[in-house]
Amino acid sequence: MMPERMQTKDLRVYFGKTEAVKGVDMEIRPGAVTAIIGPSGCGKTTFLRSLNRMHDNTRSARVTGHVYLGDRDIYNGGMNPVELRIRVGMVFQRPNPFPTMSIRENITFAPRRHGMRRRSDLQDLVEEVLRQAALWDEVKDRLDDPATGLSGGQQQRLCIARALAVRPKVLLMDEPASALDPTATQRIEELIFDLKAEYTIAIVTHNMQQAARVSDYTAFFYMGELIEFGETDVIFTNPKEAQTEAYITGRFG
Amino acid sequence: MGGSWFRLTTGALACLVLITAGLIFYELWMGSRPAWEQWGLSFIWRTEWNPVRGEFGALPFIAGTLLTSGMALVIALPVSLGIAILLTEFAPRAVRDPLIFIVELLAAVPSVVFGLWGIFVLAPVVQGTVMPFIAGSPLGYLPIFGEPGAGYTLLTASLILAIMIIPIIASLSREVLMTVPRDQREGALALGCTRWEAMRHVVLAYGRAGIFSAAVLGLGRALGETMATTMTIGNSLGLTFDYFEAGNSMTAIIANELREAASEIHVASLVAIGLILFALSFVLNSIGRLIIGRVSRGGV
Ligand SMILES: Nc1ncnc2c1ncn2[C@@H]1O[C@H](COP(=O)(O)OP(=O)(O)O)[C@@H](O)[C@H]1O
Ligand SMILES: [Mg+2]
């Protein structure tokens, strides 16, 4: 499985008349972790959700510009949203397992809809993605229990496993650890580190230590604009822009 | 301080409700005692109803009520769910707003108006079109459909009841669907599900307890509906399980005969039917609560 590259060109997102993302050109490199940081309300979530066309379902939202997955322009006739979201998975800020389904069903739900029917295939898939999400040992004896019986951190890893089960090329994560305690957060971070060999990962975080720990590249957003993009070490040790420096040294945000 | 007053007041009100229910039950019990004394529990399954000979039994009416309300629910539930789904997920604004308006309007129409509409519009259509159509289709082989006859039938009453409970079930279901958290739906969409798949497998599943309670409320409304049923059901006195025949219901027999009932045993029999209806509603609601409690572990 080859991770894929994403790229935006003059990406703008409007909610009604307000422009929440203001012309962003950015690359999300394959097989690496790109962190998106910036103060609250600067458009991180809005940017991330434009990468899997999640705004399609918000009435007031409008997206212009280009987003490429590989060389296909996902907004301008290059790909339909269903096809896109199979390739570009998403993990949400709050763990959102499906409460009426068991742990197993949470994982097999989407692959079954996409045509995977054989019991043994599904069984293998469940084990594989739960291992990838470092959850297998904790849940292997209760796969048929309700997913809501898991702790918050386990639920979030289940959601990651669920996203991996449709075999995406890219994984988008919107502050995946913000609702979790420090131990669970650490597990998620380790997991992200393990996953980046096989997946292109973009992670939104407002936690700069987290960005520094997990990412290879960092993008700093401010008021809907991409202020600075670069290798994480450079951004954190030697940023070019004054705003970036002010933010990472904690002078605002 | 404030909290304890609040608890005291709500506690007192809750007691009041219980006392009222108890009093109603007591009154119905006292009023129907002659019937129970004469026939015991067999009053429930006796099928003869003959005021002249003083023979009374509740089964034709219980059956009529259950058959019409049940069929009404069978028809109304999918339609209502369809409307609710359309309104929450698929309808563009231009369709949604008028549809919401119509549904709310339907909920506000007095039942006697539905009855009139049943007599002048629905009954002829049932007689001229619906029954011949069903009889000619594979459905016609079902034992619940006999020979098509006149327009005042169990089927007619069922259809009226269905139309009356659709607004209730649809608007309650819509509210249920709207309370399903956005991240549930988006969670499914983000996995590459279509909007329909997200709705059917995730949103509906999440809201199933709420939808179930909407159906129970709709059924309760159908069980208790009197005017529209009385005007369309045909008011026959015999037991029938044939939707193409005239039937009767617990509400209709009470509405039709209580005023003219001459003998004590006749009045008592009608009150006894009222008591059975009361108990039936109570049981139905309890079952509803129970099942909601059981499935709501997951969703709403
Ligand atoms: N659905 C929406 N409707 C209207 N405005 C929105 C919506 N979502 C986000 N916004 C606005 O867009 C801006 C960026 O929000 P967001 O992307 O959530 O920021 P971040 O994730 O960086 O905290 C904010 O000003 C927010 O109020
Ligand atoms: Mg955000």
Which terms summarize this structure?
A: 253 residues, alpha/beta, Rossmann fold, four-stranded antiparallel beta sheet, 10 helices, B: 300 residues, mainly alpha, 11 helices, binds magnesium ion
Could you please describe the fold and organization of this structure?
The complex is a heterodimer of chains A (253) and B (300). Chain A is an alpha/beta fold. Chain A contains 10 helices and 10 strands. Chain A has helices at residues 44-50, 81-87, 103-113, 119-132, 136-139, 152-164, 182-195, 208-214, 232-237, 242-248; strands at 6-15, 18-28, 33-37, 61-69, 72-73, 88-91, 170-174, 200-204, 217-222, 225-231. Chain A starts with 5 loop residues before the first strand and ends in a 5-residue tail after the last helix. Chain B has helices spanning 2-39, 59-90, 93-108, 111-136, 154-179, 182-190, 195-206, 208-224, 227-232, 250-257, 264-295. Chain B is globular, with a radius of gyration of 22 Å. The model of chain B has no long low-confidence stretch (mean pLDDT 92). The chains are: A alpha/beta (253), B mainly alpha (300). Magnesium ion (MG) is lined by residues 44-45 of chain A.
Q: Summarize this, please?
A:
The complex is a heterodimer of chains A (253) and B (300). Chain A is 36% helix and 25% strand. Chain A is α/β, with parallel strands linked by helices.
Largest interface: A-B, 28 and 23 residues
Number of separate strands of chain B:
0
Straight-line distance between termini of chain B = 32 Å
The CATH class designation of chain B is Mainly Alpha
**Biggest sheet strand line-up of chain A:** 6-7-8-3-9-10
H/E element string of chain A?
EEEHEEHEHHHHEHEHEEHH
Oligomer: heterodimer
Number of strands of chain A: 10
Second-tier CATH architecture of the domain at 6-99 and 168-248 in chain A: 3-Layer(aba) Sandwich
- The first-level CATH class of the domain at 6-99 and 168-248 in chain A is given as Alpha Beta
Bound molecule kinds, no repeats: adenosine-5'-diphosphate, magnesium ion
Q: Average pLDDT across residues of chain A?
A: 93
Gross CATH architecture of chain B: Orthogonal Bundle
Task: Report the portion of residues of chain A in β strands.
Answer: 25-35%
